[in-house]
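Hi there,

I know you've been waiting on this one. I reran it after we fixed the sequence typo, so this is the corrected version. Both the input and the resulting structure follow.
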Amino acid sequence: MKTKLISFSLQLLFWFLFLGLPFVNNPEHFEHSGAIWGFAKRHSLYVIFFYLNYFYFIPKTLKKKGLNSYLILVLFSIWVVFLLASLTEGWFVRRSVEGRMFIGLVPLIQVYALSTTFRLVLDYIKQLTAQKELEELNRLAEVNFLRSQINP
């Protein structure tokens, strides 16, 4: 239960910082509702890919099939983002000054890296907790065994 509360708190803090910092750094950019709507649409993909990586890619691919399969899946999903961006230009794509498309690749990679780190650290903490509980159970079993030998 404590791990779930920590996990939820860290995720809430991450999303608050990730989604809130653009509003703090550049508030005049969000003065009209169209900018807020565009921001929400672009960043909704980040949220989707964070949890897709967190709940599916890592436990089903990285832990069961290995790093190579995981990296291929991540690269494929980034390609899907580029495909979505090309199909829905303006939804996830912005034009730079030179007219080239700018796709939020850096934030997407950051989201993948953070969700992977977050999941692996939480899994490691769960593994350590389970290991400590097992050691405590073994210690209790040994103490009970020794007591039963002294007092039959």
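Quick highlight: Residues 97-101 have pLDDT under 50 and may be disordered.

Best,
R. S.
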